[in-house]
Amino acid sequence: MNLQTKVNIDTPDFMIDYNSKLMMLGSCFVENMGGKFSYYKFGVDVNPCGIVYNPRSVANVLRLIVEGKEFKQEDLIQVGDKWVSLYHHGSFSSTDAGECLDKINRRLERATVEIRSADLLVITWGTAWVYRHTGKGVVVSNCHKIPSQEFERYRLSVDEIVEEYTGLIGRLREVNPGIRVLFTVSPIRHWKDGAHGNQLSKATLLLAIDRLREKLGGVYYFPAYEIVLDELRDYRFYADDMLHMSSLTIDYTWERFLYSFISPEVLGLMNRIGRINKAVAHRPFDVHSGDYQRLVKNLLTEIAAISRSFPSIDFSEEERKLNELVVG
To answer: What is the distance between the alpha carbons of residues 58 and 201, in angstroms, rounded to a whole number?
Structure first.
């Protein structure tokens, strides 16, 4: 008896492996999936400006990266005792303008290099609703607790999104002709828009992606939204707030992505890396015991073997932790 409506995922004309370079931009869903890629040591750069939710803000971030923007103090605004960027998440803010600029520019400099050699750009949109700062005239990535009267709130249209991304993807391919773009819509609901407002927003995003796929080559879609809402379709797959995904749902969605877009040839290596990560995280009662010391040395040997075959995989942090545990 089949108790699920299985969502079909189109077979892509490419596969991700350990030679692939990825950049991921967008909402919390990108953070969840990007965390999985990082855990398994893929070459991935996740949200260089922090979490962003709407297509206009993601487009703003992508322009900063492609153009190699260097921020100066006049690009910041002061909110209370903090300096903030309207293009960045609050994690980049600081009470010191120089420190804020240093964090922003170091991260953007790295992303500008990464985008030029990336094989796949993954973009996740969460909402079509945007907040435009009327004084600066920019759709913000984060409101930074600025008073609401300083913003104009409205919903982007399908035409606006398609027009912006048609030009933006064209600009991106001037600096990286071979890059593919994979869109997703976050299954996390934006309930402050209301049930109907959230559905209108998600429908706008879905229609825009469909239009972009029709217009442009090398553009793909992963149905994360449909998997959670139709294939899982139960509140037990949500976190306690009934809006975000539970860890089980994140794992399930990752598994659907894994078997659709990641080369089967690297699954064995992913399992080896997963076992190493678990072993490194484990803390025994007695680190000096012979059994544990043998485990540590075996892990270092396995890491060395993987590193010889896949020099791009970075185990430096794991090696540091394990070497600190070696006795004698």
So the answer is: 16
**φ, ψ for residue 131 (rounded to 5)?**
-120, 120
Q: Are 55 and 301 within 8 A, CB to CB?
A: no
Confirm or reject CATH 3.40.50.300 for domain 21-262, answering yes or no: no
Q: Among 252, 250, 327, 261, which Cα is nearest to 296's?
A: 327
Cα gap 97→88, rounded to integer Å: 14
- Kindly state the helix (H) or strand (E) to which residue 68 belongs, with its residue range: none
DSSP 8-state code for residue 92: G
Question: For residue range 96-130, what is the model confidence (pLDDT) as tens digits?
Answer: 999 999 999 999 999 999 999 999 999 999 999 99
Which residues touch 25 (CB under 8 Å, ≥6 apart)? Answer: 47, 48, 52, 58, 61, 62, 121, 122, 123, 124
Instruction: Name the phi and psi angles at 46, rounded to 5.
Output: -110, 120
For 275, the token pair is 């076992």
Give the DSSP per-residue string, 170-234: HHHHHH-TT-EEEEEE--S--GGGHHHHHHHHHHHHHHHHHHHHHH-TTEEE--HHHIIIIII-S
Residue among 85, 163, 158, 175 nearest 121 (CA): 175
The answer to whether 34 touches 124, Cβ cutoff 8 Å, is no
Q: Domain limits of the chain?
A: 21-262, 265-328
pLDDT score for 248: 86
Average the pLDDT over 18-27 and give the result: 96
Written as six digits, the tokens of 157 are 């249209």
Give yes or no for a contact between 106 and 88, defined as CB atoms under 8 angstroms apart.
no
**Cross-strand bridge partners of residue 212:** none
DSSP 8-state code for residue 309: H
Phi, psi of 294 (to 5 degrees): -65, -40
